[in-house]
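User: My collaborator sent over this chain with a note saying "see what the structure looks like." That's all I know about it. Can you take a look?
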Amino acid sequence: MEPFDLHYQRGREYVHSPDPNYDPKVADVIHCLERAGRDPEAYAVLFQDELTYYRQPTLACADEEAGSSQALAQRRITATVDALTGRVVYLQRSKIGVKALVDVYQRVARVYSDRDTIYVVQDNWPIHFHPDVLAALRPQELRWPLHRPSNGSTEPSPRARHLALPIELVQLPTYAPWTSPIEKLWRWLKQAVLHLHRYADRWQALWQDVDRFLDRFSQASAELLRCVGRQSREILCGPALAAVEGLFYYLIECLKPIAESGMPQIPMGSNQTVRSWHTG
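Assistant: Without extra context I'll predict from the sequence alone. Here is the result:
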């Protein structure tokens, strides 16, 4: 086909974010990172997300012993990754809904009980902004429009728990998972535990294996920060500012090619040197 200037190529998905508020939303995240970097004893920045995994492993080519098939059961995780320390707070359930989100926010509030404000950076899943979830937090001043289901209520139900948790929600751009470092935690979990797992007949053993993996990060983890793109520069500018630096440039370097070509080019597990933006 060369005479016709045609080449055999694999198709690729077109990934884009149609969010008209993309840039200011990213600026909000960076503002929170900067504030926490300057005063880490008062503020925490957590990237939050959910993941679903199944009794049956993800498909791939491999030799497998014949055996009985199992129903397609699923398990859900909701978790946060601390942008400054790499600490993970998570919850596993068969279903993640309003109750589970409020439960994990209570867990987050206990872990960060010494902080005045906990920024939770998250995507735009409607359940994140359900009235019963918002009722559990301190009053929110959300800057960007919410996309609620047409049949969704705008007022808390009688079951809502009014807890005044010191959490402020920060909205990521729509359809832009590359702006959230927690996606790399999910990739690591899939590579280490979920791909081609052998637990189809031992469903609860798989839960426990996922627990063991996530429990590795129940305290501060430099290993996880490196995984999500943070480079250590404590000697030059201190641990808190170094973490903010790494995530700041993680976001900036990811957004440059997106703006130029419309395709995300995330440096997954990159060990690139982080440049300093600290002028003091």
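A starting point for your reply to your collaborator: Residues 231-240, 263-280 have pLDDT under 50 and may be disordered.
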